Triosephosphate isomerase (Cyclostephanos tholiformis), 268 residues
Amino acid sequence: MTRPAGSSKGSPAPEGERTYLLGGNWKANGTLASVRALIAEFNAAGPIPANAEVVIGAPFIHIPECLSTLRSDIEIAAQNCSLTGMGAYTGETCASQLRDMGVTWVILGHSERREGFGMAGEDSELVAKKTKLAIDEGLKVMFCIGEKKEERENGTTMDVCASQMKPLADILSKEDWAKVSIAYEPVWAIGTGLTATPEMAQDTHSSIRQWVSDNVGADVAAAVRIQYGGSMNGANAAGLLAMADIDGGLIGGSSLKMDFFTCINSVP
Ligand code: PGA
């Protein structure tokens, strides 16, 4: 099936500027019926701004529906992939299978996966290895980092973010970084309605960019996109996206409704 064309975009983003990246993270939400209804609403929404790139992170089982019926100017992400290639790995889905289907992005290292829902979670070494494998298989990666409430309160936010990025900086080549977007998601802001203020988020985004500059290179730091995630919605997106180092969002709850398009249309 051919995907419906999105409404045509306007002029391309000026050269040298980072295109905004708006990711929707549907998590383990939705039935086939609700996904179809949401896709119909998204397909009928107006044009996506020329300086915005939009990706939906769908549950594995809903990826085929998205790939065949969601407007073609929205790319599709998986919310995880395995640390393995194809083979005898029951219950896993690997990057090359995702790529083969037409998936172009994967969200890796989300705090919910790092925490492990009471099971063994994913540590930063593992997330870095998955990221490298996914890139080698042709996927782009939203690489999630972020501190917990007590870490913000005791002033270790950047230590935490740095420790989550270090294994990635060790494993990726400079060219690989063109395939990475960093999603800064303070854990205390995810699904809680407690958004970081634009100033607070900007402060951390700028420190993250500085860290990338110091540990990877100034050119990579200038080009890499840093998305904010954590209770972003149509009411607060414009304030966050107006900040110099906030290059998009990773949006959970609000991506399950038309509010997602309010976020998309909030890009400056
Ligand atoms: P939220 O989720 O927007 O519902 O806070 C964001 C995320 O977990 O990526």
In short: The pocket of 2-phosphoglycolic acid is lined by residues 25, 185, 190-191, 229-232, 250-254 (CB under 6 Å).
